[in-house]
Specification:
Largest sheet: 5 strands, parallel
Radius of gyration: 15 Å
Distance between the termini: 14 Å
């Protein structure tokens, strides 16, 4: 495992898993949100994001956390491992809500720019969108991962499986 993609629903714990794995395996960590977001929730263009992602993909070792479905197939051609946090939507929504509350009035370190978390209409729309994630993405994610010949797939279905996986990695 030298090039690891971590994907899954918003609030599933991709960033937390990525941080722990990065520490255990000594691999550089790339947050797609850091490449995508600028101050006040403004995002970069697709061209800028694509170039930034390509720069990271060409490196020898990395962990990349984040979905960005439109760039997933490209990332799959470079990775050797995909960790898919395929959690129920309700678990992800609760995780996202907890993250928003914990980070309220602050910008998280895994974000690009200064993107302050707030409990507002935008955050509730975000939480609501999580319930459509699996319906909109799961079939494509599994199809594309299965088409990626060089990628080992690790599917974790709940937080207990994540803890067990981490316990058995790198030590």
């Amino acid at each position: 495992m030298k090039r690891i993609l971590i994907i899954g629903g918003n609030g599933s714990g991709k960033t937390t898993l990525a941080r722990v794995l990065s520490s255990k395996l000594g691999l550089p960590l790339v947050h797609l949100d850091k490449l995508y977001w600028r101050d006040d929730w403004q995002h970069v263009s697709d061209e800028e994001l694509s170039a930034a992602i390509q720069t990271e993909l060409e490196k020898d070792k990395w962990i990349i956390d984040g979905n960005m479905k439109r760039f997933l197939r490209k990332r799959l051609t470079y990775c050797d491992t995909v960790i898919y946090l395929d959690f129920p939507s309700a678990v992800c929504a609760l995780g996202a809500l907890k993250r928003i509350v914990r980070s309220r009035n602050k910008s998280r370190p895994d974000m690009g720019g200064n993107c302050v978390e707030k409990l507002d209409r935008r955050s509730f729309e975000f939480i609501k969108s999580i319930f459509a994630f699996n319906r909109r993405n799961r079939a494509d994610f599994y199809k594309w991962i299965n088409e990626a010949e060089n990628a080992e797939l690790i599917v974790l279905k709940n937080r207990r499986q994540v803890k067990c996986f981490l316990k058995n990695i790198g030590d």
